[in-house]
């Protein structure tokens, strides 16, 4: 695999900050739409709280994951070759924002459930595709010596963006008033209008936050050794060839993609089922879940920032291993304790470890990807992650079913994290030297 030349000029501090603001803005989809607000609105209000609505949400997101797994590596590789990585990020970001804005039409009526699920699933695909190219741009705004801090800065900005946005939306549009309206603006709640308006505001937030990166961060040059335009079938043939080349060149890189897919699904399970467990098992009031999300984002941001600093000294592997050990330990303790206070304390410890694990996984891959092929590698990263995305939900459901208790689902997630850790331990740490071919 022949690599393209590195960027001619190192990124400025302003370009790094602009790059981080995409993460800041993307919290509008990941935190508000997918995790804490709109998915809950779809299942609890539009779907009348029926288990079938939650199942439909799972199927919709699962199908979206399959579509992403098929498309991500080839789309990213084509963007790398053509020197259109930033352009690809912009296109997928714009389409994500459009799907978010269209959620304003999803009324509190079961007839609109299908529309909401389709838009949510499409948004998750487009957001992930944007993230693939965006993550590959990490190599354009950092050096091997600063990659950990820059990645941690981006993750931290994402968490902080989620904090600011969640607080603002909770105070302005979501908290309930005695007169039946919501927030300090006394927004009407009939027909889910306040939540639908939240989706529109979140779309605008993402748009404004993403613009600085597209203005200030330069595009990568095209790879002269790879044709910019190739057919779809040829793209997949090249993908297979490149996977084989990765295995020949560095088997540890391929093993990292597989092992990280397992533990990253465990991390996703912590977020996906954390809200359900908080309410059903630990007795957190539904209104307080949003406040917990705000505080959890603060703690996760601190963890991401700190993990990035530590990583630049010791490398990404110790940070990932330490974070996974922390998550497993806290998960085991949660199996045996109860009460809101317990969840607040231990849930925040979970948040502290999630940020560094995510950020250092991104830099681990960026350090082992050949120069000029970062987008393709992050496409494979997304693909392997989606291929394993059934693990945490399946293990959670299996343990809940076997023991007829939602608390038992924690054990399923812990086992996924443990499997990810054990398969990750043999992976060799990446070279941290400046040279990268």
UniProtKB/TrEMBL annotation:
Membrane topology: Multi-pass membrane protein
Transmembrane segments: 21-42, 54-76, 88-106, 112-132, 153-173, 193-217, 266-284, 290-310, 319-337, 377-402, 408-427
Cross-referenced Gene3D superfamilies: MFS general substrate transporter like domains
Subcellular location: Cell membrane
Molecular function GO labels: transmembrane transporter activity
A cellular component term, taken from the record's GO annotations: plasma membrane
InterPro entries per record: Atg22-like, ATG22/LtaA_families, MFS_dom, MFS_trans_sf
Domain Major facilitator superfamily (MFS) profile: 1-431
SUPFAM superfamilies given in the database record: MFS general substrate transporter
Name of one Pfam family that matches: ATG22
Key words of the record: Membrane, Transmembrane, Transmembrane helix, Transport
Matches recorded under PROSITE patterns: MFS (PS50850)
PANTHER family tied to this protein: AUTOPHAGY-RELATED PROTEIN 22 (PTHR23519)
Official protein name in the record: MFS transporter, UMF1 family
Organism this protein belongs to: Pseudonocardia thermophila
